[in-house]
Amino acid sequence: MNNIKANRLKDQIFKFWGIACTLLGLVLLAIFIGSILIDGLQRIDWDFITSLPSRKAERAGIYTALMGSVWVLVLTTIIALPLGIAAAIYLEEYARKGKLSSLLEVNISNLAGVPSIIYGLLGLEIFVRILEMGSSVLAGSFTLALLILPIVIVSTREAIKAVPQSVRDGSFALGASKWQTVARQLLPASFGGILTGVILALSRAVGETAPLIVIGALTYVPFAPESPMDEFSVLPIQIFNWISRPQEGFEVNAAAAIIILLLITFLMNGIAVFFRNKWQKKLG
Amino acid sequence: MRKFKEVFIEKSLLTSALITILITLGIILVLSLEAVNFFREVPIIDFLTDTQWTPLFTDKHFGIMPLLSGTLLTSFIAIAFAVPVGLSISIYISEYAPRSFRKSIKPALELLAAVPTVVYGFFALTVVTPFLQSFIPGLSGFNSLSAGLVMGIMIIPFVSSLSEDALHAVPNSLREAAYGMGSTKLQNSFRVLVPAASSGIIVSIILAISRAIGETMIVAIAAGQQPRLTMDPTVPVETITAYIVQVSLGDVEHGSLEYRTIFAAGITLFIFTFLLNTFSYKIRKKFREKYE
Amino acid sequence: MTQQVNDNIVDKSIKRVHKLEAKGVKVFYDDFEAIKGIDMQIKANKVTAFIGPSGCGKSTFLRLFNRMNDYVDGFRMEGEILIDGENIYKKKVNVEQLRKQVGMVFQKPNPFPKSIYENVAYGLKIQGIKDKKYLKEKVEDSLKQVALWDEVKDDLNKSAMALSGGQQQRLCIARTLAVEPSIILMDEPTSALDPLSTAKIEELIYELKQKYTIVIVTHNMQQAGRISDYTAFFYLGELIEYDKSKKLFTNPEKQQTENYITGRFG
Q1: What distances in angstroms separate CA A68 from CA A133, B216, B239, one per listed residue?
Q2: Does any CB of chain A come closer than 8 Å to the CB of residue C97?
Q3: Where is the ABC transporter domain (chain C) (predicted)?
């Protein structure tokens, strides 16, 4: 009886430990966001968003970095989206089980685990030097596109896999070809799931810093990029730059820019979750 | 005609899939070509045994050990923090928490992984380090303790989410068997479910380690840029990734030895994470067969 | 069963009379009413069989007696379940203690992915018993009771997953016996087994009823007829008829019972 009581007590203790652990990360995140808001919120105004960078903290803004992020985001999407979805369709619907498909599978799983900074080294040699793009928006976008490609492929495959087999059977039975089945049935049915994965991948790209530093993105750009071949900076690099400066004012700038970056990231995640829920309901 | 179109489409899709293999080949080629150039000038034995890393000084040393020790130290701190916490979370969510709570807590935890790492770096530098300094007097402004702990927070969801999936995949019949004999949830969790889900849990831990080793911005911001061979968590160190960032920020000429050091450092990092990822993939493959 | 009893484990206050009783029991899963008000008394040291078509609530009802439904989402219960006159759904009842007293064997054999020895010793170990000699004796004793000892005595450290389905199920029964319950609930224990293994388990049940109160859910009416003293027929969450097995199978009172046992539906 005593043993059983002791076991119950241990069980209760672990339960509270589990709750504490679960809340720990979230509480820390809340503390951090709170402290950032206190530091940075007062600094955010329209000027902060529309001003060019400056060596004086109180006059500096994030305009060029923000525009750089937008450019990179759009180009990354244009490059990674068709490539990733096409690869996923091949793996899920066309590939026969065999050496090639298992090689592709191991390879994609491995790519997903390659540290982002390694993609930076790849981009530096291939895009910046060999293809002579220089440290341009285009080189940065290609680098990030390769980085998020495995994520896009994996999530697209999941979404296509979730479409019931009966849909395929039905389409084939009516005489549709494979591609017709994919294009008219599977892609529309898995659209919500694909969208969720793509948005999540892009939210990862928005926050990436290291690979872009490696390909030579600037920490100080006086002008917003106007073409894909222009040099650029992005929001996270701007934040990094401000963090590394000793003057007090820049820390406030960093906090303010972090608020904007978190806003973008959380918004994208929120949209992704929204689409996922909507899509899952539709799929039943 | 229709046949031709179908074949053309299939080939295009195949090409897209094959590009992923090109990426891997590209990474391996780029890293090893530059690294080979590096090792022409620096004997590999020096690279592995020299205890100093000073490529940017006049007295140049090219020993990877200090960078490696910095990487392993920060990763170790992160893992030592994230694994117990993450595993406890996964057990709590999978076995104790009410279902409604489970549904809302999982996306909330995954938000921890969505925060950009540069933001975590700022957190480590401006919040965690000053806080730790208030009761660890000798703590330097840059240190591996603070960076490691914050990195731990970042990888908690990697551990908790995958482990929770593994626990959840354990057939309910085992749970019922253990409860049926009078187990408490705690006994059921640690004596039956965790052993049964061990492969999935191991995978989650390996992936977390791989993630910690490759993490860049947190350590570049909060752990410092001083390569030193030490296990002391209170002093500045430099990781492999932070070194690559440091060189990239400076003005290093293409083709110079300094330029090549980042590829030598990069290939070291790549080999580590490649081995870890391959290992976890193998386990995952086996694990999947077990339950399907 | 050896009478060597470890003072730590066995609560002397538990009487070895093992009568089960349900009073006005209703069970809900969210809004669905799975059990619609059942009153029933189950006799000590007898085998009672629950029969009825799939979804009639017989398994749900069985699992009330060791509170296994507690973990099912949306589960809610009204009424009382009494064991020897004690309501087991009272707040202060220790569920782990209850389950030690009311053992359960499941539909599919569910050995833990551990060695044969560890499987049988599990229930004792979680009570904190560490005495190796006692554990060993207990494992041997339990395996002998289910006539598995001779088949596995040289392989005690081998994984239980390597046993055949029938052996696994006997192992699960041995595992249940090792903690010395007074009541054993069996939820279709032979439905996943071949005829030969089924025969062995039925034989075993026949022997076990000398010492235990056994309640068994079964799909197989021949089985119910062969091994049970009493049989209860459930239909759509209600207890339709409950009587001595001989009587129920040869001369049922209710039309529904007759339809079912003669195979007109189910």
Answers
A1: 16, 21, 28
A2: yes
A3: 20-261
Q: Are strands C47-51 and C230-235 parallel, antiparallel or unpaired?
A: parallel
CA distances from B135 to B129, B132, B139, C130 (A): 10, 6, 9, 43
Confidence of residue A170 (pLDDT cuts 50, 70, 90): confident
First CA to last CA distance, chain A: 48
| Per-domain boundaries in chain C | 20-261
pLDDT of res. C17: 57
Three-state SS string across chain A, please? CHHHHHHHHHHHHHHHHHHHHHHHHHHHHHHHHHHHHHHHHHHCCHHHHHCCCCCCHHHCCCHHHHHHHHHHHHHHHHHHHHHHHHHHHHHHHHCCCCHHHHHHHHHHHHHHCCCHHHHHHHHHHHHHHHCCCCCEHHHHHHHHHHHHHHHHHHHHHHHHHCCCHHHHHHHHHCCCCHHHHHHHHHHHHHHHHHHHHHHHHHHHHHHCCHHHHHCCCCCCCCCCCCCCCCECCCHHHHHHHHHCCCCHHHHHHHHHHHHHHHHHHHHHHHHHHHHHHHHHHHHC
- For chain B, the domains span 69-240
Q: Which chains touch B (3 or more CB pairs under 8 A)?
A: A, C
pLDDT tens digits, A60-89: 889 999 999 999 999 999 999 999 999 999
Interface of B with A in 33-62 (CB under 8 A): 34
* CATH architecture, range C20-261: 3-Layer(aba) Sandwich (3.40)
Q: Looking at the domain covering B69-240, what would its CATH class be?
A: mainly alpha
Quick check: A143 and A122 in contact, CB under 8 A? Answer: yes
Angstrom distance (rounded) from CA B217 to CA A258: 14
Pair of tokens at residue C206: 């026949």
Q: Which token pair is A195?
A: 């969208």
How much is the pLDDT for B269?
96
Chain A interface includes C255 (CB < 8 A): no
B256 in reach of chain A (CB within 8 A): no
Chain C residue numbers touching A8 (CB-CB < 8 A): 94, 96
Instruction: Check A149 against B125: CB less than 8 A apart.
Output: no
Q: Nearest CB to B214: which of A32, A35, A117?
A: A117
Q: Does A10 touch chain C (CB under 8 A)?
A: no
CB pairs under 8 A between A and C: 20
**C171-C173-C175 Cα angle (round to 5):** 70
pLDDT digits (tens, 9 = 90+) for B172-191: 899 999 998 889 999 999 99
Contact list in B for residue C110 (CB cut-off 8 A) is 171, 173-174, 176-177
- For residue B196, what is the nearest residue in chain C, using CA coordinates? C113
Give the Å distances, CA to CA, from A243 to A174, A236, A240, B250, B270: 62, 10, 5, 17, 28
A2 vs C contacts (CB less than 8 Å): 8
Which residues, in sequence order, are bridge partners of residue C87?
C82
- Nearest Cα residue to C170 out of C111, C99, C229: C111
Residues C163-209 have pLDDT tens digits of 999 999 999 999 999 988 999 999 999 988 889 889 989 998 988 88
- Residue A162 carries which side chain, given as an amino acid letter? A
Chain C residues lying within 8 Å of B192, measured CB to CB:
112
Q: Do A239 and B118 touch (CB under 8 A)?
A: yes
